[in-house]
Design goal:
Blueprint lengths: L1 E5 L8 H13 L3 E5 H7 L11 E3 L10 E6 L1 H11 L6 E5 L9 E2 L3 H9 L10 E3 L12 E3 L7
Parallel strand pairs: 1-2, 1-4, 2-3, 4-5, 5-6
Antiparallel strand pairs: 7-8
């Protein structure tokens, strides 16, 4: 199994929970690819004898993934969705934020979540992804929205 981990910004006080996630994944012999900024910020590395920790800077670099884990809040999940686009990579949101509608897994449930992921005892919640094309580059490389978008003057 191969997973990637993305976050747009984990606070220093959340480093312990991030390391707990990595340890749980390694305990199940999962190959892990982590967003490069996280590796650099927290000096993350694989335990001796485990798959080496690989990094990515863009979603296009990710291949053969079983899941992309979004670590943060609902805003981070939305960022992850725009990165993944229409690639079909499933996203799992771990809530380090406040709301947790999209990132519904608590950081206290890491062990249960990894067990379900590894044993394929989970349900995929399919959502509508909207792709908007425009003559003007309004959205850079992220012309995607989840469930809705608004057009302003």
């Amino acid at each position: 199994m191969k997973v990637a981990i993305y976050s747009r910004g984990v606070d220093a006080d959340q480093a312990q929970a991030l390391n707990a996630l990595l340890n749980e994944l390694y305990r199940h012999n999962v190959a892990i690819c982590v967003f490069e900024e996280l590796v650099n910020k927290f000096h993350l590395q694989a335990p001796i004898g485990q798959h080496p920790l690989t990094t990515f800077t863009h979603c296009a670099e990710l291949t053969d993934l079983d899941c992309l884990i979004s670590v943060g809040g609902d805003g981070t999940v939305l960022d992850t969705i725009t990165m993944v686009g229409d690639s079909g990579i499933p996203i799992l949101g771990i809530n380090y934020g406040r709301l947790g509608f999209l990132a519904s897994i608590s950081k206290d449930e890491l062990s249960i979540m990894v067990d379900a992921l590894v044993n394929h005892t989970y349900v995929i919640d399919k959502r509508t992804l909207i792709h908007l094309d425009a003559n003007v580059p309004l959205f850079n490389n992220s012309p995607f929205a989840l469930n809705e978008f608004s057009i302003h003057k």
